Amino acid sequence: MRSLRALAAFSLVTLLTVTTPIHSVSAESVKDVEDEINELEKEKSDLESEKEEAKKKKDDSEEKLESNKKEQSDVESEISSIDEELSRTQSDIADKEGEIEATNQEIESLTDEIEELSNRIEELEEDIVDLEERIEQRDALIKDRLRSIQQNGGEIQYLEVIFGAQNFSEFVSRSTAVNKVMDSDRSIMEEQANDKAQLEDDKGELEASKVTVEENKVAVEENKAALEDQHDDLLALQDQLDEQISDKETLLADLEIEYDEMEEVKLSAEEEQQLIDAQAAAKQSALESAQSKKDDLEQKEAEEKARAEAEAEAERKAEEERQAEEARRAAAESEQESEQQEEESEEQEQESQPAEEESESEDTSSEEETEQQEEESDVDVQVASGASGEVKSEDAAPSNRSGFIRPTSGPTTSPFDPNRVHPIHGDVRPHNGMDFGQAGEADKVIRAAADGVVAYSGSMSGYGNTVMVTHNINGQEYTTLYAHLDSFTVSNGETVSQGDQIAVMGNTGGSTGVHLHFEIHPGGYKNPVDPAGYLN
User: Fold this and answer.
1) How remote is the C-alpha of 235 from its chain's centroid?
2) Are strands 495-496 and 501-505 parallel, antiparallel or unpaired?
3) Would you tell me the crossing angle of helices 352-394 and 2-152 to the nearest 10 degrees?
4) How far is Cα of residue 293 from the mean position of the Cα atoms in its chain?
5) Quick check: 519 and 480 in contact, CB under 8 A?
6) In 347-453, which ranges are continuous DSSP H helix?
7) What is the pLDDT of residue 429?
8) Average pLDDT for 415-435
9) Higher-scoring residue by pLDDT: 471, 368
10) What is the pLDDT of residues 321-377, one digit of tens each?
11) Residue 12 pLDDT more than 50?
């Protein structure tokens, strides 16, 4: 009976030894994966929130862009209207300048005319002086003739001259002479009258012409003054319009700058959305991988449990067989003891024989128990070895446990600097990473700094062609960024190993030469740190 109890206890210990550690290891591994899945779900949820914020930022940017665009259109319309008004004003100025020029020419012509009239007046004044002298001379001559006529009888004397002729020929001669004298007197009187009339006409004409020209000149000069005033008003209006256009153009330039800045914000929001989508895809991939891992572990756990149960069942059956064998042996021994007791009374010399047989049986049983303990020990060793191997497999270190490697063999050209003056824009902008240059052709090869999943591959404003990779190193999440690439050889969601080529160094985006801009972000993108402290 003691043997049966020992055997049962041994079987129970063996069964517990086989099943308990294996189940504990598997459950712990599944729990780790479940924790990882929960963490990934949380990160995915956080990414959804970030995606909503990025979408809101993008929508706000688009609304502001639309408002800015409308304001630009209004300003351009105002500038166009002012331009039209300015064109009309400049046309009016040109017309006024033409009128002023014509007026100047008219004034100049009137001045010339006045000068000519002044010269003519001087000439007429001289002619008037001559006429007045001739008139005075004729007046004197006429007075003498009248005095002579009055003294000599006038027409009676002419008759005496005519009739005093001695013959007809003399009569004709004397008649002709008297006629000539009388014609001369009449001509003198007519010329005198004409000269006096002409003198009066010339004087009146000159005075009238002089007054008219002077009045015209005054009117033209007044018109010129008015035109010059209008011209000055138009020039003032032109200056005002020029100032308005300058103000509007300045406003338009400011609006264009604001539009570019908002466009950059919009592009940044779009890129952020793309990045979040890529990160969400990477998280989903990681979730699927973790779920697959969990399924594998659960399947392995079930297989291990089934194997342990099968081994326990085999051990139980073997134990039952051993117990049956022990029972058979015990029955045989009991029967043998009865026979020996009967034979003791019959044969004295055979008393030692049952005792020797019993001793041999006990020795055999002891040997069997020793063998059984050795087998149990072997089972313990095998189970411990199997459990130890599974733990070791679960805790195997990743290839990048040592950290990040340099992404290129090129030299460092610019360090991490939060207060660096931007080489293109000239203002202080944080330099959130390290720059690596190219000393040789081999330096252009860009490699993954650690094992990970490609979160983003594409173009980003400022960064040009860019690749972003998410990593999980010793339970810590990181994102590395590789910018200004000439080209890249990976796509979103692709798994990469440390040292794999992912891109070629280039000069895209806001860059002044061929180089690599490299960033490390612990905990995910937008947490830049100095990569120098992370690179091996």
Assistant:
1) 42
2) unpaired
3) 0
4) 43
5) yes
6) 352-394
7) 84
8) 85
9) 471
10) 888 888 888 888 888 887 777 777 676 655 555 555 555 545 544 445 545 544 444
11) no
Residue 135: CB atoms within 10 A of its CB come to: 18
Q: Which residues pair with 417 in a beta bridge?
A: 431
Structure tokens at 4: 């049966």
Q: Which tokens is 248 given?
A: 């509007």
pLDDT band with cut points at 50, 70 and 90 for residue 145: low
Select from 480, 431, 60, 469 the least CA-distant residue to 270.
60
| Count of other CB atoms within 10 angstroms of residue 417 | 15
Cβ(4)–Cβ(326) under 8 Å?
yes
Through-space distance between the first and last CA atoms of the chain, rounded to whole angstroms: 68
- Quick one: how far is CA 34 from the chain centroid? 42
Residue 518: pLDDT above 90? yes
Q: How many angstroms separate the Cα of 175 from the Cα of each of 159, 162, 167, 283, 377?
A: 9, 6, 12, 152, 198
Residues 26-51 have pLDDT tens digits of: 444 677 777 778 877 877 787 778 77
Give me 531's structure tokens.
């990569």
DSSP 474: T
Beta bridge partners of 456: 468
Q: Is 255 helix (H, G, I), strand (E, B) or coil?
A: helix
The 3-state DSSP class for residue 447 equals strand
Report the alpha-carbon distance of residue 438 to residue 486 in Å, rounded: 13
Rounded CA gap, 220 and 223, in Å?
5
Assign 481 to helix, strand or coil: strand
